[in-house]
Automatic annotation (TrEMBL):
Mg(2+) binds at D125, E127. It catalyses: apo-[peptidyl-carrier protein] + CoA = holo-[peptidyl-carrier protein] + adenosine 3',5'-bisphosphate + H(+); apo-[aryl-carrier protein] + CoA = holo-[aryl-carrier protein] + adenosine 3',5'-bisphosphate + H(+). GO terms for cellular component: enterobactin synthetase complex; plasma membrane. GO terms for molecular function: holo-[acyl-carrier-protein] synthase activity; magnesium ion binding. Belongs to the P-Pant transferase superfamily. EntD family. InterPro entries: 4-PPantetheinyl_Trfase_dom (IPR008278), 4-PPantetheinyl_Trfase_dom_sf (IPR037143), 4PPT_N (IPR041354), Enbac_synth_compD-like (IPR003542). Keywords: Enterobactin biosynthesis, Magnesium, Metal-binding, Transferase. This is Enterobactin synthase component D. It comes from Pseudomonas duriflava. Residues 121-216 form the 4'-phosphopantetheinyl transferase domain. The keyword Nucleotidyltransferase does not apply. Its cofactor is Mg(2+).
């Protein structure tokens, strides 16, 4: 049986999105960083990277919770309890034949694992709803001119947070395929519905395959004052 540290809730395999993806495993967990103890890493069988040795408890607790979810998702998918390593670019390195994504925010972490024979790449993100003040401050950074016209009030906290999260998921899905970093203004939402479906379009070219104008479907959900978003690239 998998050891679950006392600072974490039991792992949850619930699927939160409106569309269920085939051959994808998702696990999430709640956690309290103040209850993390050093032995939790050893007892979990997960070694912290050198960069975490002097990190604050919040960062250490996020890392361990995310890796616990990732290992459980990979075990459910492949039968092997792999723990994704950290690449030179600090992104998770998934075992051959799989892809995945890890996200965490404000005491909650989740991870997805998928088989690359079905999905080239997958990206998931979570964000706590922005305050009105921060949303107003970030509107011009996150939203493109056309995105500002999709909502009656462009700086609406839900809308800005949703755009933030969807574009983070897009980055997590496309960066492993292109190796190119891109930013909020390099993609835009062209369609979305309150019941959890959206579509994004690249505004800049990342590679021959992923050029400006390419579109991807996305899914999103609001849970406990946080937005969770997902983008999966079909094989």
């Amino acid at each position: 049986m998998t050891f679950i540290p006392a600072y974490c809730t039991p792992l949850d395999a619930s699927w939160p999105f409106p569309v269920r993806l085939s051959d994808v495993a998702l696990y999430s967990v709640g956690f309290d960083p103040t209850r993390l103890v050093d032995s939790d890493f050893m007892n979990s069988g997960i070694e912290p990277p050198p960069t975490l040795q002097r990190a604050v408890p919040k960062r250490r607790s996020e890392f361990l919770a995310g890796r616990l979810c990732a290992r459980t998702a990979l075990h459910a998918l492949t039968g092997e309890p792999h723990v994704p390593e950290i690449g030179e670019d600090r992104a998770p390195r998934w075992p051959r034949g799989t892809c995945g994504s890890i996200t965490h925010s404000a005491g909650w972490a989740a991870a997805l694992a998928a088989r690359t024979k079905h999905w080239q790449s997958i990206g998931m993100d979570t964000e706590i709803l922005l305050s009105s003040e921060r949303s107003l401050r970030l509107t011009d950074e996150i939203l493109t001119p056309s995105e500002k016209t999709l909502q009656h009030e462009a700086s609406d906290p839900y809308w800005v947070t949703l755009a933030f999260s969807l574009k983070e998921s897009l980055f997590k899905a496309l960066y492993p395929l292109t190796g190119v970093r891109f930013y909020f203004q390099d993609a835009e939402i062209i369609h979305w519905t309150p019941d959890g479906v959206a579509r994004l379009r690249l505004r800049t070219s990342l590679s021959t395959q992923w050029s400006a104008g390419c579109e991807l479907e996305a899914w999103h959900v609001l849970q406990d004052n946080r937005i969770i978003s997902l983008i999966a690239v079909p094989a």
